[in-house]
Design brief:
Ig_I-set, about 1000 residues, Immunoglobulin-like, mainly beta, 6-stranded antiparallel sheet, Contactin 4, immunoglobulin domain, extended
């Protein structure tokens, strides 16, 4: 049989470079016993790797581990297992026939022979190479090897042979055939699914692995197989549900894939389910590892070791390849951390942290060196100078490196230093001097000794005069907007530098920020004064000047009082509110060190533009008053109120608004504006008005009362319009004559009662459209784009059918009349010009009168053909020259095309700049004279015209002011001649005039 190890048996260790020269000894263990020559010569150690030749299943299977040792200690590798895969043959005994009815389900057992290693199962149908294909009806379990047929059909009759393949050895064996025959006693009826292939109730799945769940059912009809999660979470895209083969596959298994899964088998006769829980596990993975350290004797060691994994890993430590047993005194292991106190030389060695759970172990290595050292000051010399103020305490630190710790003594100058009630040598070797005096200044030496040697270090102690702030504490008083200097004067030892630091309410002042209010102004070495400019209320508080030298630090506090406008009042409350008044109360805010002299009340409504001052009783609210009545409010309106306080310095910020309060309702007093109307359909009186704004409706249930009567009548007809937003009322009655005058007035009401009516106005009822058509309609083409239309006006008749104007309809021969264009006139006008029509086109035209009721009958239709379009070619070869004070323009004659109107003349348009209105000169020749420009250039264009209108313009040319005479210009070229010759100048193309 072919043997394959689960792990590669290779050792890998990390040593510091300085250790590379140390001889390394490598060994291997099998099942906990060191491999030696007694195991046989087929074990070969090569460069740390263990090679095994002539593998033997009984002798070589087991757990292997590598050990690496040198003079610094021993470490071990993780364990590796070696197993052997094999596959024996089936027993040759014949298998009995399996007899089933048609439509019945059947299970054919494989019964694989003894084996080791993963197997793959398949089935041969009758003879090789015909294999059973899996589908919704047939399933081969890769767990048991059995063949399942959900519903047997006649085509399934035959011999079935199980084929087993070992995925490791690649060997294949096949069992004896199993005959499948049909019974002759009838066909199996329909029955509900019976799940024969089930996955375990609990399945443990490793992180990152692939899990496959099998589920298959027998049944008639053939059951469908579906998968779902019991918690309702949908499957991710990576999950493969191969329904035909009854397998759910989840690759790269993660924590979120854990849960209970359910297989549902269903057909028309019923449903059956099976559930199983997938739990997530992960072998340990180290996230924090110990590192090599070097410690002195008697030091302490703490090594952290942390790992992830599920279930949560446990920890153990090894020293030199052996498990380290914690002791209550010096060695402790807690949550993976190893701590050793009072280190000794015997603690030196190689340590390993092992994090493990039932799914594996993770190893981490580190070296501990405990060293002995003679006293050494090379890394921690005494400070060359230690400063202390007279009367202060001095500490001269002495930190020699030595292991183990020895004895420390001191000298002042050349004399040994004796301890006293002011002088003490501390346990860590440092020297403490209390209440220092000038006589304590001098040279001090620290001497350190242990059994390995002695060393010393020297430094100087200097005693300085103390720093004293000469400015006394005080309270300063200032008004908002003023500036003030805060003083800070000191006396000090002249050999020391001073550092001034200021704090405001214990917060450091950063000069240059804080809006530029703070500025340093202390010009002398012993002064740290600052100035506060444009002081605000927020600057009131405690200011601290801190002075620091190398030997001491002191501070002084100054209190600053800032007087300013009062703070906002509080607790503004509406005590009582009726239709037009409200009683308010409030509490005073801070007076900011200046008594409050008066209060101002403001109000805001949904209809106001911000806050507005209100009328109060009393009219002036004094500073000692905390109540007032607001008057002249609008009924049925929600109000908010706020209060502002004033003192001799000014008016402060407003209070927070009061809660909204609505005034009580009363009958309305404001009537609608702009009552008018008219128009509408026959027999209608249309009345319109502007709705009354909500703020003047004075209560709910607001509406309008419309009163009207015919002109000359005495009684009023009334109608209620119960909508505050309404702006229109229509009275319809067949007896109303067209365009009859009515007296109309509109009043108001709400739930509180009726209000007044507005003024009476006269409104006419709807009129009838004109009853006659205009006569004597004439149409004449003025140009290719213009038609003049005229008619005889209709008289104002006794039937009161007004004529407000006339409507001209026109359409071309290619258009339908209902698509006609419309042009209207106003009043008694009897002609109009239609512009924008097409040239050489026949148009049909009719005219009808109109008023507010509509249009009257049309006139007779007339037709007219527009003139030919104007010339499309612009004048070419425009040339100009000057003579004395004139400009002479010449151009070629424009010839009209066959479908264009003849050229009857030319228009010359000229102006002095592009924004001025052009002058126009007409001529029937191809030449004109203009006055020479004296102050500005000329901008000129030329266009032909005929009876069809104006044609296309020439390009725009510019004639500059030219000193002297005899200048000649051409649009196409420039040439320079002799002094007596003309000068050709080109024109500049511009945008159209």
């Amino acid at each position: 049989a072919l043997a394959k190890p689960i792990y590669s048996l290779e050792s890998s260790f990390l040593f510091q470079k300085k250790q590379c020269f140390v001889s390394l000894n490598l060994k291997w263990k099998l099942n906990g016993t060191e491999i030696s020559s007694k195991y046989g010569s087929h074990y070969i150690l090569s460069g740390g790797n263990l090679r095994i030749s002539r593998l033997n299943k009984d002798q070589d299977a087991g757990t292997y581990q590598c050990l690496a040792s040198n003079s610094f200690g021993t470490i071990v590798s993780r364990e590796a297992s070696l197993t052997f895969a094999y596959l024996e043959n089936f027993k040759t005994q014949r298998r009995s026939s399996v007899s089933v009815r048609e439509g019945q389900g059947v299970v054919l057992l494989c019964g694989p022979p003894p084996h080791s290693g993963d197997l793959v199962f398949s089935w041969i149908f009758n003879e090789y190479p015909t294999f059973v294909k899996q589908d919704t009806r047939r399933f081969i379990s890769q767990e048991t090897g059995n063949l399942y047929i959900a519903k047997v059909e006649p085509s399934d009759v035959g011999n079935y042979t199980c084929v087993v393949t070992n995925t490791v050895t690649k060997t294949r064996v096949q069992g004896p055939p199993t005959p499948l025959v049909l019974r002759s006693d009838g066909v199996m009826g329909e029955y509900e699914p019976k799940i024969e292939v089930q996955f375990p109730e609990f399945v443990h799945v490793a992180k990152g692995s692939t899990v496959k769940l099998e589920c298959f059912a027998l049944g008639n009809p053939v059951p469908s197989i579906n998968w779902r999660r019991v918690d309702g979470v949908s499957f991710s895209r990576k999950v493969d549900t191969r329904k035909a083969s009854g397998v759910l596959e989840i690759p790269y298994f993660q924590q979120e894939d854990a849960g209970t899964y359910e297989c549902v088998a269903e057909n028309s006769r019923g449903m059956n389910t099976v559930k199983g829980k997938l739990s997530f596990y992960a072998p340990p993975q180290l996230i924090e590892k110990p590192r090599d350290v070097q410690k002195l004797i008697d030091d302490s060691l703490v090594w952290e070791c942390k790992a992830t994994g599920k279930p949560k890993p446990s920890y153990r430590w090894m020293k030199n390849g052996e498990n380290l047993e914690p002791s209550e005194e010096r060695i402790q292991v807690a949550n993976g951390a190893l701590s050793i106190s009072r280190l000794t030389l015997s603690d030196t060695g190689m340590y390993q942290c092992v994090a493990g759970n039932k799914h594996g172990e993770a190893y981490s290595n580190a070296e501990l060196r405990v060293i002995a050292v003679a006293p050494d000051f090379s890394q921690n010399q005494l400070k060359s100078q230690t400063l202390v103020k007279a009367g202060g305490d001095a500490l001269i630190e002495c930190k020699p490196k030595m292991s183990p710790w020895g004895v420390v003594s001191w000298r002042k100058g050349s004399d040994p230093l004796r301890e006293s009630n002011r002088i003490s040598i501390l346990a860590n070797g440092s020297l403490r001097i209390w209440n220092a005096t000038k006589s304590d200044a001098g040279l001090y030496t620290c001497i350190a000794r242990n059994q390995f040697g002695v060393a010393s270090s020297t430094g100087t102690l200097s005693v300085k005069e103390p720093t004293i702030i000469t400015t006394p504490p005080s309270t300063l008083d200032v008004t908002v907007g003023e500036s003030m200097v805060l003083p800070c004067q000191v006396s000090h030892d002249p050999s020391l530098e001073l550092k001034f630091t200021w704090f405001f309410n214990e917060q450091l002042i950063h000069f240059g920020s804080h809006g530029g209010f703070f500025e340093k102004v202390g010009g002398q070495h012993s002064a740290g004064d600052i100035m506060i400019r444009n002081i605000q209320l927020r600057h009131a508080g405690k200011y601290t000047c801190a002075v620091q030298t190398k030997v001491d630090s002191i501070s002084i506090a100054l209190d600053l009082i800032v007087r300013g406008p009062p703070g906002p009042p509080t607790s503004v409350h509406v005590e009582e509110i009726i239709d037009t008044t409200a009683s308010l109360s409030w509490r005073p805010g801070p007076d900011n060190h200046s008594p409050i002299t008066a209060y101002t009340i403001q109000a805001r409504t949904p209809f106001s533009l911000g806050w507005q001052a209100v009328t109060t009783v009393p009219e002036v609210v004094a500073g000692h008053q905390l109540r007032a009545t607001v008057t002249e409010l609008s009924p049925w309106v929600e109000y908010e109120f706020r209060v502002l306080a004033s003192n001799t310095i000014g008016t402060g910020e407003p209070s927070k608004p009061s809660k909204q309060a609505r005034t009580k309702g009363t009958y309305p007093k404001v009537t609608p504006a702009n009552v008018s109307g008219g128009g509408g359909s026959r027999s209608e009186l249309v009345i319109t008005w502007e709705p009354v704004p909500e703020e003047f409706q004075n209560g709910p249930g607001f509406g309008y009362v419309v009163a009207f009567r015919p002109h000359g009548a005495t009684g009023w007809m009334q109608a209620a319009v119960p909508s505050a937003e309404a702006s229109r009322y229509v009275f319809k009655n067949e007896s109303i004559q067209p365009f009859s005058p009515f007296h109309v007035k509109v009043g108001v009401y709400n739930n509180e009662g009726e209000g007044p009516f507005g003024p009476v106005t006269t409104i006419y009822s709807a009129e009838e459209e004109p009853g006659r058509a205009p006569t004597r309609v004439r149409a004449k083409s003025l140009s290719a784009s213009e038609i003049e239309v005229s008619w005889k006006a209709l008289p104002w008749s006794v039937s009161k059918r007004r004529v407000l104007g006339f409507e001209v309809r026109y359409w071309s021969r290619s258009e339908k009349e209902d698509m006609a264009s419309v042009q209207r006139t106003v009043g008694n006008q009897t002609s109009t010009v239609i512009r924008g029509v097409k040239g050489s086109t026949t148009y049909y035209i009719s005219v009808r009168a109109y008023n507010t009721a509509g249009t009257g009958p049309p006139s007779n239709t007339v037709n007219v053909t527009t003139k030919k379009p104007p010339p499309s070619q612009p004048p070419a070869k425009v040339m100009w020259n000057t003579s004395d004070s004139k400009i002479i323009l010449n151009w070629e004659r424009v010839k009209a095309l066959e479908n264009e109107s003849e050229v009857t003349g030319y228009k010359v348009l000229y102006k002095k700049n592009r924004h001025s209105h052009p002058n126009v000169m007409e001529t029937n020749t191809t030449s004109v004279e203009l006055a020479l420009p004296t102050d500005e250039d000329y901008i000129i264009q030329i266009k032909p015209f005929g009876e069809g209108g104006d044609g296309s313009s020439s390009k725009q040319i510019t004639i500059p002011r030219i000193p002297g005479t005899n200048a000649v210009g051409s649009a196409s070229k420039v040439s320079t001649l002799s002094a007596l010759s003309t000068i050709a100048l080109s024109f500049t193309a511009r945008t159209s005039l």
